[in-house]
Design a protein that fits this description.
Layout lengths: L1 H27 L4 H37 L1 H12 L17 H4 L9
Amino acid sequence: MLKIAAKKKLWVVTYVVVVCVTSALVCFGSNGFVHLFKMKRELYELTKKNYELTRENTLLLRKIKLFSSNRVLQEEAIRKELGWIKDGEIVIDFPRKSSPAQEMPSEFYHRY
């Protein structure tokens, strides 16, 4: 009778160990639940970024279509970005104000 109880106890312990090891592998293995949750989070982030890039791409395509068909916008962009002027226009270039540190001679702001 004692041997049967010992064998039963051995089977129970073996079963518990196998269940624990299998559970650990399922949860923390290379393709376990932890990995699954990380992959779901990464998929969510990539899907979100993909949506934002698609939206930005759509807006840029609209701007390109509008810009390519509108000469006024083209001229405005050229004048603003490249500084071009029309014939007969006069350009007045105002000097920028300098900061007080630039006006002082270097001997006044030497650190000791």
